[in-house]
Automatic annotation (TrEMBL):
It comes from Microthlaspi erraticum. Gene3D superfamilies: Acid Proteases. Pfam families: TAXi_C (PF14541), TAXi_N (PF14543). One of its GO terms (molecular function) is aspartic-type endopeptidase activity. Residues 84-438 form the Peptidase A1 domain. This is Peptidase A1 domain-containing protein. Keywords: Aspartyl protease, Glycoprotein, Hydrolase, Protease, Signal.
Length: 443
């Protein structure tokens, strides 16, 4: 969940290994999408586009050890959310929490009770009782960490006694909020060699949180590229790389893949050779900026002004797992939608109630998506990303499809959202500053 410039820095993740392991393994976290628990998966489009727009506003304002581990990763459709979930094990003894996977934020936190403060389990959510964990250590409000290191992470200035913990009041761009205290705690991860490993981290113990962003979740796993995110320390310890494969966003919770930290090859099967493109980690921090230079439809390159892709002039593009739809600056949005519209002549335009997407049409009368020209994102250096057609023709109601693009304004950061990324394997190499990707079933 991203936020404005004043909210740009989040929680420091100080991952310190507490067990020796130099095996050539990777850590994998299973990951799932969270789109709707309601009777229909389509009603969530109205909610997610509002969340996406607020998130995009904030984006536009913000400018070693070998081996690894894995986490389960899957769609949140069964939990009523439009993002992807994984599970993390926190504390001693370890307790599992279902968290949103967010490459656009730095804060990692869980639903937590500390000194009796915080909500008990509600809405099928788990609660972490800090005082029952032998490894929980609060960060004091008078410490250097609180007063200096976490100053831009919304640590609060109030400090009535030296023993008072360092508190935060974090507000996301879509209006969601999380309040709590910073603490050092242990994460237990599963290595791919079958062993477990404990990592010491600085996380957020949130005793209060509100907002649709956390629908069905116990917290957030912040994966932005920053000294304060889970990613930076995890890749430092496990080889500089992480990867994920996003299953179809309407998949149920029994369908999943993995979020993997580590350099060992993944077992995920791809249907074509991987392509590699530059990953610009310094251009729009803390986001993962990619060097898109154009978009084509079929064999025709669309006439989009070059400044749309210029990250030094207010444009540029990021890849974000926490935004569902894909945002394009006005100059690109208009051209892309008009080009796709010409390919949809003959299909009735419709306006589904509560769906704030500009172009929707009836797909009940002989629509064949395979006849729609292939949309392609062109990277600097020649790599091409060809999303699946269902990734830019989004099902929003029975018999209704919409173009999965949102106008971002001018100037604006372009955002490739998680629906556009689905059924691709993505590998981020933070040492080489490269992004590799290949189509995959993710199962």
């Amino acid at each position: 969940m991203m936020r404005n410039r004043a909210l740009s820095c989040l929680l420091t993740m100080l991952l310190i290994a507490t067990a020796d392991s130099t095996q050539n393994t990777v850590v994998r976290l299973e990951m799932a999408h969270r789109d709707t628990l309601s009777p229909t998966a389509f009603r969530r489009i109205e909610d997610i586009i509002g969340e996406d727009k607020k998130r995009h506003t904030m984006i536009s304002q913000k400018r070693k050890t070998k081996g690894g581990f894995k986490m389960p990763l899957g769609s949140g459709v069964d939990y009523g959310a439009a993002q992807y979930f994984t599970e993390v094990s926190v504390g001693t003894p370890a307790k599992k929490f279902r968290v949103v996977v967010d490459t656009g934020s730095e804060l990692t936190w869980v639903n937590c009770r500390f000194h009796g403060k915080g909500k008990e389990k509600v809405e099928n959510r788990s609660v972490f009782r800090a005082e029952e964990s032998s490894s929980f250590r609060k960060v004091g409000c008078l410490t250097q960490t609180c007063k200096v290191d976490l100053m831009n992470l919304f640590s609060l200035s109030s400090c009535p006694t030296p023993s008072t913990p360092c508190s935060y009041d974090y507000r996301y761009a879509d209006g969601s909020t999380a309040q709590g205290v910073f603490a050092r705690e242990t994460f237990t991860v599963n290595l791919t060699n079958g062993r477990k490993r404990r990592l010491r981290n600085l996380i957020g113990c949130s005793n209060s949180f509100t907002g649709e962003s956390f629908r069905g979740a116990d917290g957030v796993l912040g994966l932005a590229f920053s000294d304060y995110s889970f990613t930076s320390r995890a890749v430092d310890l496990f080889g500089g790389r992480f990867s994920y494969c996003l299953v179809d966003h309407l998949s149920h919770k029994n369908v999943s893949n993995y979020l993997i930290f580590g350099s060992s090859p993944t077992s995920t099967k791809t249907t074509a050779a991987a392509r590699t493109a530059p990953l610009n980690l310094d251009l729009i921090p803390p986001f993962y900026a990619i060097d898109i230079v154009g978009i084509s439809l079929g064999d025709k390159m669309l006439d989009i002004p070059a400044q749309v892709w210029d990250g030094t002039a207010g444009g540029g593009t990021i890849l974000d797992s926490g935004t569902s739809l894909t945002f394009l600056a006005d100059a690109a949005y208009t051209i892309v939608v008009e080009a796709l519209e010409r390919s949809l002549v003959g299909f009735k335009r419709v306006k589904p109630e509560g769906v704030p997407i500009e172009y929707c049409f009836s797909s009940t009368s002989g629509f064949d998506e395979s006849k729609l020209p292939q949309l392609t994102f062109h990277f600097k250096g020649g790599a091409r990303f060809e999303p699946h057609r269902r990734s830019y023709l989004v099902d929003t109601a029975p018999g209704v499809k919409c173009l999965g693009f949102v106008s971002a304004g001018t100037p604006a950061t372009n955002v490739v959202g998680n629906i556009m990324q689905q059924n691709y394997l993505w590998q981020f190499d933070t040492l080489a500053s490269t992004l590799s990707f290949a189509p995959s079933t993710c199962v």
